[in-house]
Amino acid sequence: MNPMASSTFDPIGAALADYAAGQTEATITVHSNVAEDEPLPAKYFFRTLWEMPELERVALDECRGRVLDLGAGAGAHALELQNRGFQVKAIDASPGAVQMMQQRGVREVACHDVFELSTRLSEERYDTLLLMMNGLGLVGTLEGLEKFLDLAKPLLAPGGQILATSSDISYLYEDEDGALVFDLNGPYYGEVQYQMSYREQTGPEFHWLFADPTIVQDYAEAAGYEVEFVAEDEQQQFLVRLTKL
């Protein structure tokens, strides 16, 4: 982690702007407390439908009604849904990402995080809340997951659904024999701490939640949702549908 981190620097927004200006190799560096640094090319945020992972394409096919795209990035999913005739509102906490979506033609855009939904969108109702790219991680922690599931309810129209992807990262904690080694006195193993760097500047630290299927089911059912696991891939990532009862 970079001790010179800025609380105001927007790594994603800066990288998206550079990519759109022609710097096609613009790449963010992702730091975490569970893995080595990883590159995140800005190009990935501009992927087309057929460049998306299968789980994302399935999720887009499962959308219905008015859609709220959370953590929308550069608007790849929102633009695809608009092209299909959906009314979509796209939300991101990155001011640069929001500006990029506006430039790319996303019609309804707003800049805030998922925990501001109930105050910013108090009068709005949606048939689908969409959270892609391990999007359920936006809630940060198990406490955040519980809070988000409650905040989302008033936003959902009768019979409305949350479509979200998440991953089970327990494989990161396997020893040489394949046994799982956790700190039972520590936080849930799927609560990860991140920072992003770009152009030798580092953004603020943030938490991201990789909730395994059992956790998702337990928390969602406790919050009053019906749970359906729609699809999964070979990287332990899955797509879940939570339907408001």
UniProtKB/TrEMBL annotation:
It comes from the Bacteria. Coiled coil: none annotated. This is Methyltransferase domain-containing protein. GO terms for molecular function: methyltransferase activity. The keyword Transferase applies. Pfam families: Methyltransf_25 (PF13649). GO terms for biological process: methylation. Residues 67-160 form the Methyltransferase domain. Signal peptide: none annotated. It comes from Hymenobacter gummosus. InterPro entries: Methyltransf_25, SAM-dependent_MTases_sf. The keyword Transferase applies. Keywords: Methyltransferase, Transferase.
